[in-house]
Amino acid sequence: MSEKILITKYGYSLLLEEYNRLKNFERVQVTKTIEWARSNGDLSENGDYIYAKRRLREIDERLSYISSRLQKFEVIDPSKPQGPIIQFGATVRVIDLDQGEEKVFILVGEDETNPEKGLISYTSPVGRALLGKEVGMIVEVETPRGTKEFEILEVVYSTLEEFFSG
Q1: 3-class SS at 84?
Q2: Which residues pair with 112 in a beta bridge?
Q3: Contact by Cβ (8 Å): 79, 154
Q4: I want to staple 7 with a disulfide (CB 3.0 to 4.6 A). Which of 27, 81, 109, 123 is the partner?
């Protein structure tokens, strides 16, 4: 049996939404474009046809990837109170001891990371270092730019919808 892949309820819904959009809208539109381009004759120099075929391949590859992942996901609701220990789905406020600035990290699945918004994978170096820790602890993280030290200031569990709306 393959190992389960953790994902938040919110991340799962976004991925499912992407799958349905690609399958039921974009793929249908691109297929129509291919049919139209074929009706124009010579395909060897038909830019619409060449682009549409390339886009169809991209869509099919993404659909295949998402489909294979959907079967392996274990969906976690991060809003369930989970105590002071940092677990998957936690929103963690830290202070970067080297730079003296506060940062917020939300530990999410690999398919929903967005470092600019603070969404980091629980399997990333920072994510792995934070898991199992609690407020007041200092963690060291080996990064490509060297060792970083963070002091954990706060651990909160909430839905990602709450985070993005607030």
Answers
A1: coil
A2: none
A3: no
A4: 109
